[in-house]
Amino acid sequence: MPRICSKCQQPSPMHDFVCSHCEAPLIDNGELLSALDLNGNSSKLKIIPTIVVLIVVAIIGLLIKFLS
Length: 68
Description:
mainly alpha; 4 strands; membrane; transmembrane helix; transmembrane
């Protein structure tokens, strides 16, 4: 569902942080949106499990190599 701009009342996509029509800053639940707010936390949370999996795979690979 798109966000409605408080300035021009036009819909903008959910991933935008400024209105695609009048370029006014978009507000969500009374808070000004920014690119850092939209992208910051989710990417950090996704990379941690990836790093853990890579470490586990590396340890298993080393154990197989040394125990063979």
